[in-house]
Design goal:
Blueprint lengths: L1 H23 L23 E10 L3 E10 L2 E10 L5 E9 L6 E11 L4 E3 L3 E2 L5 E7 L9 E2 L5
Antiparallel strand pairs: 1-2, 2-3, 3-6, 3-7, 4-5, 4-8, 8-9
């Protein structure tokens, strides 16, 4: 009887292991490329992620330009970290195809508050040749007060 239980358990493990591996490799929740614009990057199992640039605001907040690679394509989003007792910030990314002369502004807009610690916005496709930067500011502040990362290509 003990052998039968061991054989059955081994068979179940062999059947379940590919399912567990597939569950851990979460795909893009979109078809890829521009169809992924304004999509949550959180559930994706990225092949590679990195922080490309950051900007700070007097020790209270920081914005990071984050990126991830999946199926050979890059996607970008902003992450804002807020220190305790520093209130709320708005975060976003900008995308340009000419180094910032013309841009798609305030993509993936979100807010992050000190009680959260940090939060991130939705992702946008970062094709070859495109420039991306991340920005943040306090709600109600003029856009000229924005903290911005450098443009990255």
């Amino acid at each position: 009887m003990l052998k039968k239980v061991a054989v059955t358990a081994a068979a179940v493990a062999l059947v379940m292991s590919p399912l567990a591996a597939n569950a851990a490799a979460a795909p893009l929740p979109c078809a890829g490329g521009y169809s992924c614009d304004n999509t949550d990057p959180g559930p994706v199992s990225w092949e590679k992620t990195q922080t490309d640039a950051h900007a700070t605001d007097r020790g209270c907040g920081e914005v990071e330009l984050r990126s991830g690679k999946k199926n050979g394509r890059w996607y970008a989003w902003a992450r804002v970290k807020v220190a305790s007792m520093c209130g709320t910030y708005e975060g976003w990314i900008d995308r340009s195809y000419d180094g910032g002369e013309h841009m798609e502004h305030v993509l993936g807009y979100f807010t992050a508050a000190d009680f959260q610690g940090s939060d991130f916005g939705n992702m946008y496709y970062w094709p070859d040749g495109a420039w991306i930067r991340a920005g943040f500011k306090r709600p109600g502040e003029d856009w000229s007060k924005s903290g911005l990362t450098e443009w990255r290509r």
